[in-house]
Amino acid sequence: MTESAHPVPPSSSRRQFLLAGSAALTGALLLGSDLVAAPSGLQRLADSPGARVPIAYVESSAGSSSLAQALAGGGGRAVPAAGLRGSSSLAGSGFRASVHGFAAAAHGERASAFRSVLVDALVPLSARQADPIPYYAFTFRRDPAVSVSGTTRVRVAAADGLRMGLLVNALADGVAAAPAAAVFTSGRERHLPTLCPGVYLLGLQQGMFARATELPALDEAAWATLPSVVLVVEADLA
């Protein structure tokens, strides 16, 4: 299932982040509680109150293995990922999800406005597994020394409906932000991000990607105003 993501150890400080993101979900996942098995952990996360991760899909990016490849023509357009129309759904198909890190490398440097950015993926072990397991997907810490994780990849089994959850905790200087959550679907939940092959941008500030956004060329300074983490989804043909 996983290739280079790491399961969340129960004793880590990051466990507290997961608890803050969705107490109902992680109570079942990490604390071994006797919560009712239905609805599933992903459904509970989708229904939970709190902030949502602003997610955009890069148009015409199906088949791209990176943001650079998706923007090879010198720019592009990103549209809200919820309720995508006209895109190839991954309903009933397995897929690979790769978290590539920041869209702009400058956000991962010493001068970054972010003190830390944590992204965790919540992935079902199989189509029969009701509750997902949390995995470290991306880690950036600025202090005391800059630390940025590499690309992580997760394989997700074939299924329908809710497929994968994300918890994002982006801590910026002078800003108190609560963890934000997202659940990808290959079903008919039009208020949730639609899962299809291509490149997604996970916004690190609330209010991002509420409408179609013109994307600059990858080397342009304008990316400083679009703080985001890149997620690439590919069909798993294995």
Shape: globular
- The portion of residues forming beta strands comes to 25-35%
Major beta sheet, specifics? 7 strands, antiparallel
Average pLDDT figure:
84
What topology, given as strand order, has the largest sheet?
8-4-13-11-2-3-12
In short:
Helices cover 11% and strands 34% of the residues. By secondary structure, it is mainly beta. The protein has one domain (6-235).
Give an overview in words:
- This protein has one domain (6-235).
- It is mainly β and 238 residues long.
- The chain has helices at 14-21, 23-30, 41-47, 67-70, and strands at 6-7, 55-58, 76-80, 95-102, 114-124, 132-141, 147-148, 152-156, 162-172, 180-185, 198-203, 213-215, 228-235.
- The radius of gyration is 17 Å and the shape is globular.
- Residues 6-12 and 19-37 have low confidence and may be disordered.
- 11% of the residues lie in helices and 34% in strands.
- The protein has four helices and 13 strands.
- Helix 1 crosses helix 2.
- A hairpin with a 7-residue loop joins strand 9 and strand 10.
- The chain has a seven-stranded antiparallel β-sheet, with no helix packed on it. Strands 1, 5, 6, 7, 9 and 10 form a six-stranded antiparallel β-sheet that branches.
